[in-house]
């Protein structure tokens, strides 16, 4: 189940007035719509989804780079998820064997 | 053409994911279900798997479904799971709706007449059987398994529509909070009052509710009243969000079960509070029949609290705890994601998936009851005033499995719907997954509590 070219799809970010930013201000904001984000990578991912049509080449590159980084993290998360599922499954199997 | 190929690809992936999820769940839950086969309320003593293990397996299955959902991070695929798939046109919609309203009024009349004049034995009284077995168990199941037909069938709406409407209509300003309070009041009445044993009391209650409802519909207008204020219409509409069919302006919309839970359909915090209250109400209903409740109630009453106060106090306190936990999860999600999206938006967007949990719990609670009491229901519908002793279907032992499965399927559906919602709200895929940590923790807790209640022996609530 790969998703390398699957990031393009409908998205529905909350309207700009439904964000709550701490008094010291947001870490990053989107240059296109002003929505606040915690880091530059999230801004890039957001721009790739919400403003794809108006991005210049440099912005597009940043989007691609952010997606690449995110895909790597996702792969790591999935490895951990598989490990957790295996532990959960065999753990339960053993408990069932002992109890019943 | 490209688009079409895309759709095919998503469909193939969807099937693969569903098959995988089912297989994985099956392997995780299979042993529990096989052993829990004798879980029928009557046959609970002969259980070969201890209840704690069933509860733990259920919690693990919900956690596992979250981990499995992390493999479906394909945005277009996730988005394709929800939203209407197809519209069906109904011929003669207006006439059908009139007909349904008329049917509703006839059934209401039968309930009231049978309540006052019928047998005093609950199982052979038309009012009791039609209201509890036919409507609250059977009809409610149809709202989340098929679709919500209550706006068409609602007899009070039909009556309000037939009456002359006043010149001036008032605006309702209090949102869904009164509906949540009304829901708690109805649950309290149902648990504490003899509404399921005394047909006369039931008939009086139905009439009183009818007078308030019709008067409210006249003052505020039927759309405002049944859309916002009336707790019963709201419960059934909320359950209808889980169903595959929904009536829209374009006809009947067909979607995946649970597909309606990802849309931004709630108005605000009050609406979300109503959803959480509904979830708590279904839990409370089962909680008061557990031996633990009996013990706790005894201790509290011996400590000097009047017995009348114990039930409403627990009802309100529990609603507060459920709501507080949910608010806490929404607050924490801002940090785990991380995101600047405000709490109010998160509270609103992630509440609808909980409806699948409430529906699963309702199914667990009422399917067996409904099937067992089908013969009295058939009798009540055909001859509401007869005083025959009706037969009752004896459920096979494996039927208890349905209760456990209902709770589990509801939670898994909720986890998947919340996952899809997170993908709509957040731009980052890891961000969307991390936003779900606190919600999944709360969901596992709800599962454990629900399964624990379902696997307890049922005892009569004390002091009633
Ligand atoms: Zn933007």
Would you kindly provide a written description of the structure presented here, covering whatever features stand out?
The complex is a heterodimer of chains A (100) and B (464). Chain A is mainly α. Chain A has helices at residues 40-50, 57-99; strands spanning 28-29, 36-37. Chain A has a domain at 16-74. Chain A is built from two helices and two strands. A two-stranded antiparallel sheet of chain A has the order 1-2. In chain A, helix 1 crosses helix 2. Chain B has one domain (2-454). Chain B has a three-stranded antiparallel β-sheet with strand order 1-3-2, with no helix packed on it. In chain B, strand 2 and strand 3 (251-254) form a beta hairpin. In chain B, helix 1 packs across helix 3 and helix 4 (93-117) crosses helix 7 (155-162). Chain B is globular, with a radius of gyration of 23 Å. Chains A and B meet through strand 2, helix 1 and helix 2 of A and helix 1, helix 2, helix 3, helix 15 and helix 18 of B. The complex binds zinc ion. Zinc ion is lined by residues 30, 32-33, 35, 46-47, 50-51 of chain A.
List its salient traits.
heterodimer; A: 100 residues; mainly alpha; two-stranded antiparallel sheet; elongated; disordered N terminus; B: 464 residues; 3-stranded antiparallel sheet; 3 strands; globular; binds zinc ion
Instruction: Write down the overall mean pLDDT of chain A.
Output: 87
Number of alpha- plus pi-helical segments of chain B: 20
Percent of residues in β-strands of chain B:
under 5%
Flag low-confidence runs of chain B: 1-12, 30-46
Number of separate structural domains of chain B: 1
Q: Uncertain spans of chain A, ≥5 residues at pLDDT below 50?
A: 1-9
Short description, anyone?
The complex is a heterodimer of chains A (100) and B (464). Chain A is built from two helices and two strands; from the N terminus they run E-E-H-H.
SSE order and pairing:
The complex is a heterodimer of chains A (100) and B (464).
Chain A: E1 28-29, E2 36-37, H1 40-50, H2 57-99
Chain B: H1 2-35, H2 51-69, H3 75-81, E1 86-88, H4 93-117, H5 126-145, H6 150-153, H7 155-162, H8 177-192, H9 199-220, H10 222-229, H11 231-240, E2 245-248, E3 251-254, H12 269-287, H13 291-302, H14 307-336, H15 343-349, H16 354-372, H17 374-382, H18 400-425, H19 429-435, H20 437-454
Antiparallel strand pairs in B: 1-3, 2-3
The complex binds zinc ion.
Residues 30, 32-33, 35, 46-47, 50-51 of chain A line the site of zinc ion (ZN).
């Amino acid at each position: 189940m790969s998703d390398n070219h699957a990031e393009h799809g409908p998205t529905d970010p909350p309207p700009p007035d439904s964000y709550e930013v701490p008094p010291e201000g947001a870490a990053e904001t989107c240059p296109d719509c002003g929505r606040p984000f915690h880091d530059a990578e999230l801004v890039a991912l957001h721009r790739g989804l919400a403003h794809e049509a108006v991005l210049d080449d440099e912005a597009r590159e940043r989007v691609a780079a952010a997606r690449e980084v995110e895909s790597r993290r996702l792969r790591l998360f999935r490895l951990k998820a598989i490990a957790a599922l295996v532990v959960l499954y065999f753990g339960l199997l053993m408990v069932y064997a002992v109890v019943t | 053409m490209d688009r079409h190929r895309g759709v095919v690809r998503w469909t193939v992936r969807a099937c693969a994911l569903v098959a995988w999820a089912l297989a994985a769940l099956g392997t995780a839950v299979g042993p529990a279900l096989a052993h829990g086969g004798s879980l029928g309320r009557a046959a609970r003593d002969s259980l070969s798997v201890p209840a704690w293990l069933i509860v733990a397996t259920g919690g693990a299955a919900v956690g596992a479904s979250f981990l499995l959902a992390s493999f479906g991070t394909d945005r277009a695929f996730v988005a394709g799971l929800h939203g209407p798939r197809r519209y069906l046109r109904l011929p003669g919609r207006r006439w059908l709706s009139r007909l349904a309203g008329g049917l509703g009024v006839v059934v209401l009349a039968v309930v009231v007449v049978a309540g006052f004049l019928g047998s005093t034995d609950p199982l052979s009284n038309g009012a009791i059987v039609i209201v509890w077995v036919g409507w609250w168990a059977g009809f409610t199941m149809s709202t989340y398994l098929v679709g919500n037909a209550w706006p068409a069938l609602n007899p009070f709406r039909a009556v309000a529509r037939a009456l002359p409407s006043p010149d001036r209509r008032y605006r309702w300003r209090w949102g869904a909070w009164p509906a949540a309070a009304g829901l708690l009041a109805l649950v309290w009445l149902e648990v504490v009052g003899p509404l399921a044993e005394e047909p006369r009391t039931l008939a009086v209650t139905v009439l009183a509710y009818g007078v308030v409802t019709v008067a409210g519909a006249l003052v505020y207008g039927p759309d405002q009243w049944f859309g916002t204020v009336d707790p019963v219409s709201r419960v059934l509409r909320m359950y209808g969000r889980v169903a595959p069919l929904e009536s829209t302006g374009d006809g009947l919309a067909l979607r995946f079960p649970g597909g309606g839970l990802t849309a931004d359909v709630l108005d605000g915090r009050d609406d979300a509070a109503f959803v959480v209250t509904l979830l708590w109400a279904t839990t409370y209903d089962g909680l008061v029949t557990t031996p633990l409740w009996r013990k706790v109630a005894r201790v509290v009453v011996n400590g000097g609290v009047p017995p009348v106060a114990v039930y409403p106090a627990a009802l309100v306190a529990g609603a507060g705890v459920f709501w507080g936990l949910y608010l806490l999860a929404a607050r924490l999600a801002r940090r785990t994601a991380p995101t600047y999206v405000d709490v109010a938006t998160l509270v609103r967007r992630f509440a609808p998936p909980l409806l699948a949990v409430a529906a699963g719990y309702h199914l667990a609670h009422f399917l067996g009851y409904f099937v067992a009491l089908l013969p009295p229901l058939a009798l009540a519908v055909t001859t509401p005033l007869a005083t025959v002793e009706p037969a009752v279907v004896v459920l096979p032992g494996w039927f208890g499995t349905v209760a456990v499965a209902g709770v589990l399927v509801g939670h898994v559906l909720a986890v998947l719907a919340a996952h899809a919602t997170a993908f709509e709200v957040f731009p980052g895929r890891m961000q969307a997954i991390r936003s779900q940590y606190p919600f999944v923790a709360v969901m596992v807790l709800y599962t454990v509590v629900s399964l624990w209640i379902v696997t307890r022996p049922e005892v009569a609530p004390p002091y009633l």
